[in-house]
Amino acid sequence: xxxxxxxxSGINNKIVALSETEVAKLFTxxxxxxxxxxxxKMKFANSVNGLVTKFVRLDFDDSxxxxxxxxxxxxxxxxRAYEVGQCELWWEVFEEGMKQLHNAGFVHRDITYENIxxxxxxxxxxxxxxxxxxxxxxxxxxxxYTESELLEMAEFREHFLNR
Length: 163
Ligand SMILES: Nc1ncnc2c1ncn2[C@@H]1O[C@H](COP(=O)(O)OP(=O)(O)OP(=O)(O)O)[C@@H](O)[C@H]1O
Ligand SMILES: [Mg+2]
Hints:
Blueprint: E1 5-9, E2 14-17, E3 22-27, H1 35-48, E4 55-61, E5 66-72, H2 84-104, E6 106-107, E7 116-119, E8 122-125, E9 132-133, H3 134-161
Antiparallel strand pairs: 1-2, 2-3, 3-5, 4-5, 6-9, 7-8
Bound molecules: adenosine-5'-triphosphate (ATP) and magnesium ion (MG).
């Protein structure tokens, strides 16, 4: 296999696979989001538990002329191949992990299907683009974001368990 390999080309960022274990989010000149802030948010979540994809390093790729946020590659499974009972167990672990993150002062803010990946070890989260830390946004916004997150989680749960 030849790397880097494009695996996603979105509105804001491209994601490339660097190897079997690492992917990078590319930040180019016209990217408005801040790579440093995303790295900090990811590292904070990593310090709480294993739900969010692991930060590896910041890098610059000369040939791509892009700043890179390098992280662990999450190999995802199709949840529809699994029984509802198994999914319920995965959901409970996920919910517990989310509560830990909220209590520690991290709110993800983008709980959608594309950002929750199922693996052999259960549900994992990617994409901290718009995540927020209590220490940065203050109590009022943080509590408001957490409230919306609980609704987004309930919606995801419905789809995940009643397909
Ligand atoms: N760590 C990862 N492991 C495996 N796949 C990933 C990883 N990070 C991102 N991807 C893939 O790339 C896609 C986009 O990544 P991400 O959600 O972080 O970017 P995004 O901000 O939503 O991009 P855009 O908004 O520009 O579409 C994901 O839906 C997933 O398919
Ligand atoms: Mg996304």
